[in-house]
From TrEMBL:
The lineage of its organism: Bacteria, Bacillati, Bacillota, Bacilli, Bacillales. The modification N6-(pyridoxal phosphate)lysine is found at residue 225. Belongs to the class-II pyridoxal-phosphate-dependent aminotransferase family. Histidinol-phosphate aminotransferase subfamily. Transmembrane segments: none annotated. It comes from Paenibacillus chartarius. It catalyses: L-histidinol phosphate + 2-oxoglutarate = 3-(imidazol-4-yl)-2-oxopropyl phosphate + L-glutamate. This is Histidinol-phosphate aminotransferase. One of its GO terms (molecular function) is histidinol-phosphate transaminase activity. NCBIfam families: hisC. Residues 33-359 form the Aminotransferase class I/classII large domain. Its EC number is 2.6.1.9.
Amino acid sequence: MSIRTRQAVLQLKPYSPGKPIWEVQREHGLDRVVKLASNENPLGPSPLAMEALLRSAAELHRYPDAGFSELRSALADTLGVTPEHIIAGNGADELIKLVAEAYLETGDEMIVPSPSFTEYEFTGVLMGARVVPVPLRADFTYDIAAILGAVTPRTKLVYVCTPHNPTGTYLPRGELEKLLEELPPSVLLIVDAAYGHYADADDYTDGLDLLRQGRTLLVLQTFSKIYGLAGIRVGYAVSRPEVIEALLKVKEPFNVNALAQTAAAAALADTDHVSRSRELNADGRRYLTEELTARGFTVVRPSQSNFILVRLGAEAGRIYEGLLQRGVIVRSAAVWGLPEYVRITIGTPEENDRLLEALAELG
Ligand code: PMP
């Protein structure tokens, strides 16, 4: 187990999410604010999930099911594995932390793409591990040779995020297979497919089919994105039963609340809502990519996700602030060391047009 040093804790930086709607309303005296900053589902939650959640509220005096058995079975049926292959968490965030707690000791190494979702690095530093960033290529695609080249005898975990946050690019199936083949068996590969439901490239895989074929990897997914349940915090990890067993040992007893378990199971069954969300996203992604390109901006392609990364150049800071003043929140990519870029979540057609109008006003 890790000896967490005080030094490791002092190194940590608090998580800084995008600005919330209420703050922009208050700061700029606005009623209507469009938030395209946190990759949420603009259609909201499934109505079936809402109904199930309200029904289960009558049982709030009871503790939740510590083993989330209903949700676990529903996920197992949907994903084509047995329940022993699945753990649910208080968001995928919690699962990222559980992986670090279960697998990292002080001095171990963990490879993460750079840039990437900041939670990976946070959990590695928290456990006193050495976090080894491997840069993406200049076009923001993965460099598998560089990842393999960074592996040492101390490497325990390798993270890939596909579709990748914050760029929207993805790791093609062939490259994921090569990575799996060439990593030493002592290294656990984690495929963060939080945005996997939005991907439509022929050679995209979230890794679940490789897992079903008996390969060892851990796939992370969430109910916060296409299922529209970010506020209630449910994610899940799928891996071999012995990996899941290790994560179950370090979780809090009642880590997924009762409302979340019920809502997630109902959301999973609402395949129409998922299809509608996927189509709305694909249309909006195409539309915004074309419109922004026509206006002279560079959009990182191909986005396989529910957001696009857009290069605004030296004016990025001014444009970001100008959008806030006009009630449109996007995410500055400065947190990922990309100050000339912003990450824009695909919204409803009205929200996408609001963004384009606000950009036009800014000149
Ligand atoms: N992985 C990635 C790549 C993400 O972008 C996010 C959320 N922003 C998560 C995991 C965590 O998702 P959750 O809301 O389930 O904690």
